[in-house]
Write a structure and sequence with these properties.
5 helices; alpha+beta; four-stranded mixed beta sheet; 33% strand; five-stranded antiparallel beta sheet
Length: 237
């Protein structure tokens, strides 16, 4: 019995499948598994002119403390890998990388402190401090975000979704409003975290859109501090 040789068509199909598999594996291998150290480098560069934070010129009528321990005063952030999943198959691959970055609480607390000291010299808070002192204790403040990368590749086609997402944490501050040693008013004020996710949809480097997120984070801390002052003034009237 003579065997009939395989047709060129079969060879072309098999060759196409091999090429498709190679393309899928290339897309898979270049998916954005960003090293934790690289994210910390970007955060450090963003805050290079303000870290370690310099002492804030303070109003003697305003005392600010916090309840959390600042674990490392030498780093602007600490990033850890939370999840790393890869599924490499012949013609289909998918991945999910998730890193969480904790910005130094020292940076966050200093930004809040700077904003409060600024508003303490402006009306209406300035008027409220005449003959009074204000003691503030920060219990919670936003200081983290996620790098989230999900993608898949099938034959010659691939897709990838890249996000920087806030690690949602409200601003929670206890206050005591005093005349001398007498406590006239005390309470706790909570301001909802207003940070939003950033999606890399318009191209650009991962470093750039991480920096864009950090710009937003800085602005949100100032806005949340202002919201705290507004609520504080309404409570101590």
């Amino acid at each position: 019995m003579r065997y009939k040789p395989m047709s060129n068509g079969f060879l072309k199909v098999r060759f196409s499948l091999v090429c498709a598999s190679c393309v899928g594996m290339i897309l898979f291998s270049f998916s954005s598994c960003i090293p934790e150290m690289k994210i910390d480098d970007w955060v450090g560069e963003h805050y290079k002119s303000s870290f370690p934070p310099k002492p804030v010129a303070s109003n003697p009528a305003v005392l600010i403390d916090n309840t959390f321990e600042i674990k490392d005063t030498t780093k602007a952030s600490v990033t850890n890998k939370w999840e790393a999943k890869k599924t490499p198959l012949v013609v289909y691959s998918k991945w999910h990388f998730l890193n969480v970055c904790q910005i130094s609480e020292n940076i966050a607390a200093t930004k809040f402190n700077t904003a409060i000291q600024y508003y303490s010299s402006k009306k209406p808070l300035k008027d409220k401090l005449v003959g009074h002192t204000l003691e503030l204790t920060i219990n919670s403040i936003p200081h983290g975000f996620y790098h989230d990368d999900k993608g898949s590749a099938f034959l010659f086609f691939g897709s990838e979704d890249l996000y920087v997402k806030p690690d949602k944490k409200n601003l929670i501050v206890e206050y005591r409003y005093l005349t001398g040693d007498k406590v006239d008013k005390k309470g706790t004020i909570t301001i909802t975290d207003i940070n939003k996710s950033y999606e890399q949809t318009q191209g650009g480097s991962t470093k750039k859109w991480t920096n864009d997120y950090l710009d937003q984070y800085d602005e949100c801390l100032v806005k949340m501090s202002k919201s705290f002052v507004d609520k504080l003034v309404s409570e101590i009237q």
